[in-house]
TrEMBL record:
UniProt GO BP: proteolysis
The name this protein goes by in its record: Peptidase M14
Family: Belongs to the peptidase M14 family.
Top-rank taxon, per record: Bacteria
Signal peptide: 1-25
UniProt keyword list: Signal
Residue ranges of every copy of the Peptidase M14 domain listed in the record: 37-324
PROSITE patterns recorded: PEPTIDASE_M14
Pfam families: Peptidase_M14 (PF00246)
């Protein structure tokens, strides 16, 4: 009898492991298929980050879904709510509450196209999501900030620090939607500095997640646990495409933030932060990753296939850290009054909006010099055996690049100034660094 009981227990455990692995495999297959077919759903009208409210609205208005103007921004721009599905589980998703964080807004447009498609191999999946959930989308919650391509609202308030006072009409709308809809799950969709690394590594944290904490002790209740479990499924799906480039956002409690308060109000809050990926300046690849991650999360919620995940899987995601510069030049030789001094040079490239905030110029900044062996560069140069020399010493380069007097006036490299110099080996030019970029 004891032997029979042990065998029965083993069979039951094996069954549940099989179900969990089967669910994981199905999620992996689904995400890989989405990734492969993404171009079929991509909204081609938006191809860069600095699109405006006027570019977004025609795309929303033509959607064949239930939609309404849920509110207005401070400058009277319409804030749309789009509704899909008829299921019992309510999910609220909003993007771009910071005006210069547009990646997820682009991905939501792609998701809207996905839900309009048919006969593409995903009909059953769409039906599963839409019959088990009701989805509420609010794309571009901060259109006034998007107009200026800035983080803050038109009244210079960080909306994500307005969850106590509600001085922004956009933030007040988000609170109203939370109160009225009472979503079981909420997706808070952001961008972050592209120089965040995945832990202490040279890899950019391309996508980071967080199940936000609702108190200073960072306790876990059922709502936060469910958010963590859904995140585990999404992160495992993305691991196939960007191994080593996933991270976990700091869960230090911020009592003024919407994510933390929404978690306190009872919704399972899933934060997605889009960082950087090499040579993806306009974040079109990261847009694709958001598309896959969000739909994978919605699938997990609809099927309740997330419940087997444990906290250890979530905590295995590396923390966001700051170990990256845009360009790191290692072991460059400087001449100080005839004495050779070897230093590393860390350079960042800062975007400056043009007047209409539809484009940008780059301003380079020398962030640090010295021993930077514990840091990495998104791009790197091994300058061992190379000497740093001023551009002014090379009139042929000044002419070739039509350089101004300002660009060549500095004879020495200084912190917090532009990066314009030459790396040579003897008299041979090996690299020209012009405004922090390799020429």
């Amino acid at each position: 009898m004891v032997l029979l009981h042990k065998r029965l227990t083993f069979v039951i455990i094996a069954y549940f492991i099989s179900c969990s692995m089967s669910g994981f495999a199905q999620t992996q297959d689904f995400s890989k298929a989405l990734f492969a077919q993404y171009e079929n759903y991509k909204e081609k009208a938006i191809t860069h980050r600095r699109f405006k409210h006027k570019d977004l609205i025609p795309l929303i208005e033509k959607l064949p879904f239930e939609k309404q103007v849920a509110g207005k921004s401070f400058e009277e721009r319409a804030l749309y709510q789009i509704k899909l599905g008829t299921g019992n589980t309510k999910v609220l998703l909003w993007s771009q509450m910071h005006g210069d964080e547009p990646t997820a807004t682009m991905a939501l447009l792609d998701i809207f196209r996905f839900f309009q498609a048919k006969n593409d191999g995903f009909d059953e999946l769409r039906q599963t999501i839409l019959s088990n959930t009701t989805l509420y989308f609010v794309p571009m919650l901060n259109p006034d900030g998007a107009e200026r391509y800035q983080r803050r609202t038109a009244t210079e308030i960080d909306m994500n620090r307005d969850a106590l006072r509600f001085q922004t009409p956009e933030g007040a709308l988000l609170k109203k939607l939370q109160d009225e809809l009472k979503p079981e799950f909420s997706f808070n969709l952001h961008d972050k500095n592209t120089r965040y690394s995945a832990g202490k590594s040279g890899k950019q944290a391309t996508v980071s997640f967080l199940a936000t904490s609702y108190d200073f002790d960072r306790n876990w209740n059922p709502a936060r646990t469910k958010a963590m479990q859904v995140i585990c499924g999404m992160s495992e799906a993305l691991q196939s495409f960007i191994p080593g480039h996933l991270g976990r956002w700091n869960d230090e409690h911020e009592p003024r933030a919407f994510g933390d308060n929404i978690a306190k109000w009872g919704s399972s809050l899933i934060l997605i932060e889009s960082g950087g990926y090499k040579d993806d300046v306009e974040k079109q690849f990261i847009r694709k990753l958001n598309f896959v991650a969000i739909l994978t999360g919605l699938q997990a919620i609809a099927e309740q296939s997330y419940t087997h995940y444990q906290l250890a899987t979530y905590e295995a995601l590396p923390n966001n850290d700051r170990y990256l510069y845009d360009l790191l030049i290692r072991n460059a030789e400087f001449n100080y009054h005839g004495k050779a001094v070897v230093k590393d040079i860390a350079i960042d490239l800062i975007e400056k909006n043009n007047k209409s905030a539809t484009g940008f110029t780059i301003k380079s900044v020398i962030e640090d010099m010295g021993d930077l062996s514990t840091f990495w560069g998104i791009k790197e140069i091994d300058a061992t055996g190379l000497q740093v020399k001023p551009l002014a010493d090379f009139p042929e380069l000044v002419k070739k690049y039509a350089l101004s007097k300002e660009a060549i006036q500095d004879k020495e490299l200084n912190l917090d100034e532009k990066a314009n110099f030459v790396l040579t080996k003897g008299n041979e030019v090996k690299y020209v660094i012009l405004n922090g970029q390799i020429k």
